Amino acid sequence: MVNSRSNSLTLEVAGYCAIAAIISAFTAHKLTKAAATKAENARRLEEAKAASLANVERNNAQVEKGLPRGSKDDGLKIDSIYVWELEDLKKRFPSEG
Fold first, then answer.
1. How far lies 95's CA from each of 87, 88, 91, in Å?
2. Is-contact 83 77, C-beta < 8 A?
3. Distant-in-sequence, close-in-space partners of 52: CB < 8 Å, separation ≥ 6
4. What's the pTM?
């Protein structure tokens, strides 16, 4: 009888230990994943800030040179321009001449 009770308690303790190990592993996984996600978000934010700062500096340098803000793509060429609608501006603005 004592041996049977001892085996029963051993199995019960082993079950509790297994449950505790599973909960511990799950919690460690979630915490590690949350920390990695937080670090990745911080890295992306820093990259975005650096890119934004670089754009601001580039735009300010262009303005100082008398150029418009933005970037110029020398690879783009305009072959044709299609005019969809024309409006005679004399109807809206008086002539100064």
1. 15, 12, 10
2. no
3. none
4. 0.50
Place of tokens 């005679």: 88
Answer for the pair 10, 16: CB distance below 8 angstroms, yes or no. no
Contact criterion met (CB below 8 Å) for 58 and 67: no
Tokens for 75? 């690879």
CA distance 78 to 39: 45
Q: Are 69 and 62 in contact (CB under 8 A)?
A: yes
pLDDT at 1 over 70: no
Tens of pLDDT, residue by residue over 11-54, are 999 999 999 999 999 999 999 999 999 999 999 999 999 999 99
- Residue at 17: amino acid letter: C
